[in-house]
Each structure stands twice: as structure tokens, then as C-alpha cells.
Amino acid sequence: MENSPDTKRMRDLVELLNKARKAYYADSEEIMDNFTYDRLYDELEALEKATGVVFSDSPTVQVGYEVTSSLPKVTHESPMLSLDKTKERDVLKEFIGSRKTLLSWKMDGLTIVLTYRNGSLYQAVTRGNGTVGEVITANARVFKGLPFRVPDGREIILRGEAYISYTDFERINAGIEDVDAKYKNPRNLCSGSVRQLDSAVTASRNVRFKAFTLVKADGVDFGNSVENQMKWLESLGFDVVEYKAVTAENLDTVMDDFAARISSNDFPSDGLVAVYDDIEYGRSLGRTAKFPRNAMAFKWADEEMETTLKEVEWSPSRTGLLNPVAIFEPVELEGTSVSRASLHNVSVLRQLKLGIGDRIKVYKANMIIPQISENLTCSGNLPIPDTCPACGGPTYLAEENNVQTLICVNPDCPAKAIKSYALFVSRDAMNMEGLSESTLEKFMAHGLIKSFGDIYRLKEHRDTIVSLEGFGEKSFRKLTDAVEASKDTDMARLLYSMGIPNIGLSGAKLIVRELGNDPEVLKNASMDQLTAIDGIGEVIAASYTDWWQSETNRKNFDEVLSFVRLPKEAAEHPAQTPLAGLTFVITGSVAHFANRSELKNFIEEHGGRVTDSVSKNTDYLINNDVTSGSSKNKKARSLGVKIISEEDFLALAES
After folding, report:
1. How far apart are CA 247 and CA 96, in angstroms?
2. How many Å apart are CA 138 and CA 146, to the nearest integer?
3. How many helices and strands, by DSSP H and E, does the chain display?
4. Is the pLDDT of residue 429 over 80?
5. Which of 65, 67, 312, 516 pairs with 641 at a CA distance of 20 to 30 A?
């Protein structure tokens, strides 16, 4: 039996699935999509049933994965088990029968256990391996949908899902210029955000929370009903996952309603969860080694279509990374026509053994994102280009963490230039509405743009532009109006628009606020000057100073500077307000402002400065929980930094 083909295949599957689980749970990475994982998991489970053999490290008998980060770890009061799952409605109907059952979204984020004591959030812990999780209490305090205090002093333990909305996912990815550095899905982004060592990063990413299970609340009579528990959690201020009461009779109707809303939801979900409403009955059923018997997960059976691979397009980024995109014969999936799917990197392309003309199966992950699930012919004849399709320059294969990527090494590649120009005209930079990448490509192809300064000279090429396809007199006027309006800007936006590596808009603001508007000072800033700025470390400072060593970069900057209209120094700080020159750090939730960003903007508009971490240069830490034992409060006290509430801050601002 040990050497049979079945057991050999099982060992291979265990190794492969465990590698994927470690990447998913411990490293916040995804080396295998959910569809492939489920397919291989089901194959392993079927082989285990057929052979009677189950290896000790099989994922069918393990929950989660061992945590490896530097966050503190604790043991859960009760084990966090997985749920048994099905993709068949009939199986779910049989499970439900005539019993009242709550059907809710199966959120695709990171499961968190919360403990409240004496009316305040005492501890937040990730699921981890189901027995031991990571303590992320400071980060949980900035989750949206999670109250810091509740109107009940008893010990309350509940579970829920931390997640990031599609809107925030797209916003965050849009700010990442390197395509390969972009997050593949909201779940990966959420996992990394929740497990940050700095809660300011978590807060900036708008992590949200929905409660889905009450574990403990001694002394409360819930009438033996899970639904009453959910309503009670809502009354305490929690966002709870949407649920509907069902039996087998109305299950189809309710499931159809859930399914119809997937494409319009702003949150990621990968199925539904059914749990018996009768608490005592559910407890009486007990559990298996891995699953509780009172609940079952339903995973959407992804709609797959077979099609033919036509080509692989290599899409270049500003950094030179060439990203493979599969182009195939269009198919209808979940009500829309699909003809493209990202392959992410060379490693994924090779794993699929792709070749032009191959018959492939495609689906939409979570009914949203097009993916290739399987290659039916596996010709493997697709060559990896040794020249860049945009410039003809040489490419090379880079490998990091066992992932291969293709890089164009030509520093003058026009594709890199297009991405640089796209950043230059973007909303947070020079804000030239109407100058899309395709429009920039047209202008560059006609020799109209060879430098940033040429964009300001586009009005000199009226006859050429109005003759281009898709352009006319009206489009030309709209374009030149946008270019003219962009001249009224500030130095921080101008710095950011240059595309200096590692310098985002917030970093540019920090540098300008500290060093001022003088171009010569900014061009010749030293490492010591930069690293003395809170929020600017050695890596960012080195990127900044290295960039200015290039005469071409200096020339581009000076050329743009000759066109723009910067406010005078005095205009940036119109009045000597009580906040002028003071440095603040903001932590925790706010009440008088819509969010912490609004408070930050208020401080900056009144001449103050906001940084992410407490240091000897911090004047005030704003925290409505002045007496808390948070890490920032502790650091502030150790450095003698005054901790003030919002009320104290408003009094200071008005003094």
C-alpha cells in the first residue's frame, strides 16, 4: 500500500496543499487559487476514503497553519474549527431539513476572536492554527464596524471576519506602481493589514469587521436562539454579517437572492454559511476532530467554460516588469463576456504549461475575477520572450522567493516612459484630467511628447491633435484647459509627479513641510536632513538623493518648474494658528471628525504636522482613550509626550 500509485499521489497532494496553506495562513501570500486548492483537496479526500490511509500532516485533519510572525501568541479558549463544506444544494438541504437555520455570507477575510471585559475591548486574536492565534488588539481598535466600548460589563467573547472592501482594495492597489507588487485579492491585503506591527498602517487600509458568532456572554437569556444572539450583538454596536432564516423549503429562493447580489457586493465572499438556530440542539450534536456538526459551509460552484488560448500579452510596467496576460476566445461567465485573465507571473504561466492554441478552462474567482483553472492540452510551447515587446530591448528572468518574473532592462523603454507620464498626469500628481495612457501613447507615437515639459506645449500641436482618431476641436480644448489648470499646484504634488522611487504623495508632503519650497534646497537635500524627518527612513532618503544625481531628472524637474505656479511660502501657512509648528500623532477612533484623515487634514491646514509614530519630536499624541495601555500611549509617557483627547485638542486649536 505504501508504494501504491494512490498513496504516492496522496503524499504529493499533502505536500502541495500544505505548501499552499503555509503561504496563505502564515505568509499572507497566495501561490494557488481557491478553485485549484478545493479541487486538489477534494481529490485527496476521495483518495483517503478509497484507501483508508490518512497521513498525519494531511490538511484534511489539520486546521489553519502554525503562525510564524513576531506578534504575541495566545491559546484560544475554545478551538476554532473549520466548517464542513459542500457545493451541492441538495446536500445543504438535507443538512437543514425542517429546522430553522440562519444562512449568511461566508466572508473572505481573516477570522478574528474578540474578548470584551468591563465594557472595553480587552483582546483581539487571529485564528492562527485554530488552537493558537496572534494578538492584534491594537490593530482591532481601528477596525470599522467594531466598537471599542460596549454597554455591557460582563466578559463577552465573539468571532467575526476582518475584511477589506473591493473599493478600498482597488484604491490601495492603484497607489502601487509596480504591477507585481499589487495585491492579488482583498483577502491577501487584509491578512497583511491585520497583522501589521503598526496599527496606523491597519487604519489607513480601512479594515472592516463583521461579527458572525457569539462564543460567550454569561447570564444573558437568548431564548435558545442564534438569531437572538446576532440581534444582541447588533444592539451592542457591532456590524453583523447579513443573515436570513431558512428551512429546506425556502432555501432555493433565499440562495438565489444571495447569488444575484454577489457581483454588486463591495465585500469579498466565497460562499454561504448555514448554522442551526437552536443553540442547545447544535451543542448536542458535538463535533468531529475538525468540524462542528451544527454548521455547514456552502461554496459557490464556479461556472467554468472551455475556450482556446489565442496569445499571451506581456504588459510592461513603469519599473520594467513584464506581466503575462492570457488572451482567449471570449466566453460568457456569470453574465458577462470574458476574454482576458492575468497570469500574475512567469511561475504561474509555467505551472499551467501553457501554449498557444491550448484548450483551457476559465472561471471567475468568487464570481468576480477571471482566472484560468485548468489547461486541458498542456502543450507547454509558449516561449518566454527574450526581448521586450515595447522596445525590443533585452529581458531577463528574475527569481525571488521561488517566484519568477520577467524584466525589461532597457532604461529608455517607451513603455516605462508611458507609465512615468501616466503617474505625472494622475490625480494625486499634476491632475490632468483626460490624459489616459492610450492618449499618451498616441501623442508619443506622433512625436508630440518626449519630456514632461512637452505636455505643457501640446497646445502648439493643435492641427495634429484634432486630426487624430477620437479627437476634435472640443476634445482639444478640454485637454488644453486641463493642462492649464494643472499649472496651479504645490511643491509636494510636483515632487510626487516626478516618480522618485519610494516617494509617495505623503512622503513628498513630509519632505516639503520640513525643508520648504525652495527648489535648490529640495534638489540638494542630504541623507542627514532627510532621515531627521519623522517618517523618512534611510531607504526612502537614499532613493530620493540618488534620483537627484541624474542630470536628466534635474532637467525634467526644472522644465516642469518653469511652467507651474506654486503658492508663495506664506500662503501655505496663512496664519500663525496655535497648531503651527506642532507635531501630532493620532491613534484610536475619533468622534468630532469623520475619520482620522479629516483630523489630519485639519491639523495640516492650520500649520501643524502629523506623523505615524511617536518620537522625541512629537508634541502631542491624540487618543480619546488617554489612560489606555496601548503601545503608543506607553511610548508617549516614556518620552514625556503629552497625551490629549479630541476635546483637549479642540481647546488647544481654539486657544
Report:
1. 6
2. 13
3. 26, 22
4. yes
5. 516
Q: What are phi and psi of 650, to 5 degrees?
A: -65, -35
Q: What ranges in 205-250 are assigned the alpha helix state H?
A: 226-235
The region of weakest confidence among 151-160, 279-288, 509-518 is: 509-518
CATH among 3.30.470.30, 3.30.43.10, 3.30.70.380, 3.20.20.100 for 73-299:
3.30.470.30
- CATH superfamily membership of 414-485: 5' to 3' exonuclease, C-terminal subdomain (1.10.150.20)
180, pLDDT greater than 60: no
212: left (phi over 0), alpha (psi -120 to 50) or beta: alpha
Task: Count the Cβ atoms, other than its own, within 10 Å of residue 256.
Answer: 10
Q: Is 87 a catalytic residue?
A: no
Listing DSSP states for 316-355 in one string gives E-TTSEEEEEEEEEEEEETTEEEEEEE--SHHHHHHTT--
Q: Give the active site residue among 85, 106, 419, 600.
A: 106
Amino acid identity of 413?
C
Domain 491-572 is in which class? mainly alpha
Q: Are 105 and 264 in contact (CB under 8 A)?
A: no
Total residues belonging to the chain:
655
* pLDDT at residue 230, rounded to an integer: 95
Please determine, for residue 570, whether its predicted confidence score (pLDDT) is greater than 50: no
Structural contact between residues 270 and 299, judged by C-beta atoms closer than 8 angstroms: yes
As a whole-number percent, the residues of the chain with pLDDT over 70 amount to 91
Is the model's pLDDT at 26 over the cut of 50? Answer: yes
Q: Quote the pLDDT of residue 1.
A: 37
Q: Are 621 and 641 in contact (CB under 8 A)?
A: yes
| Topology match between the domains 491-572 and 583-654 | no
Q: Which fold has domain 583-654?
A: Rossmann fold (3.40.50)
State the average pLDDT over residues 443-462.
85
> Within 13 Å of residue 547, how many CA atoms lie on the same side as its CB?
20
Give the whole-angstrom CA distance, residue 642 versus residue 626: 10
Distance, CA of 275 to CA of 628 (rounded, Å) = 37
Tell me the pLDDT tens digit for each residue of 599-610.
Answer: 887 887 788 888
DSSP for 467-483, please give it.
TSTT--HHHHHHHHHHH
In sequence order, what are the beta bridge partners of 117?
120
- Tell me which DSSP letter residue 25 carries: I
d(CA 89, CA 100): 16
How many angstroms separate the Cα of 317 from the Cα of each of 137, 175, 415, 567? 38, 13, 7, 33
The set of long-range contacts for 224-230, using a CB threshold of 8 Å and a minimum separation of 24, is 224/278, 224/279, 224/280, 225/277, 225/278, 225/279, 226/102, 226/275, 226/276, 226/277, 226/278, 226/279, 226/282, 227/102, 227/277, 229/279, 230/102
- Per the listing, cell 454577489 goes with 262
